[in-house]
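User: I'm new to structure prediction. If I give you an amino acid sequence, what do you actually give back? Let's try with this one:
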Amino acid sequence: MPGFTIKTLCASTWQDFAALVERHNGVWGGCWCLEFHPEGKERGAHRREAKERRVRQGTAHAALVYDGESCVGWCQFGPPAELPRIKHLRVYSDSAQAPPDWRITCFFVDKSYRGKGVSSIALAGALQEISRLGGGVVESYPEDVTDRKVSDSFLYNSRLAMFERQGFERVRRLGKNHWVVSKVVQASAGRPSAEGPSALA
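Assistant: Good question. You get back a string of structure tokens that encode the predicted 3D arrangement of the chain. For your 201 residues, that looks like this:
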């Protein structure tokens, strides 16, 4: 996918992220990618400010996909304390083992870029950033769409097959069509990148 690059969500990329959200009316009815944070249940216009505050404090993580200078998608990740409000939480908690080091909770892609592999690039970028941040056990909760037609707008945690292509393994079923998947990511030798783009082909 020549032309796509990855940057981390941080103070210097906030405006690019915000522009993508604003182009889509706040995303999912004004979510502002706050739903999985502890305060995500609270609705209202304050969510933009709350997300920006988290970004500037370093308590919100995402790999942002760029086409040139424009942010066109993201993959949100973070430790469980940062992202505790996962879907199917009661079912998850009934059989949960030791918590993972990291969770991947949602994806979003600009409507003009859907079907172009942006989510896959965003996932690879998130794993790269997790490696730079020390690695560890990474968990996510994608949906199995085998023999089912599901609108991209509902696949907030993307597809099971995409995760399996990037080395995740099924751990257990979560609800009717979702799965807990897991992968161990090794720490990279270098220090975390604050904002520098990295090309992903």
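You can read the tokens as a compact description of the fold. Here is one thing that stands out. Confidence is low (pLDDT under 50) at residues 191-201.
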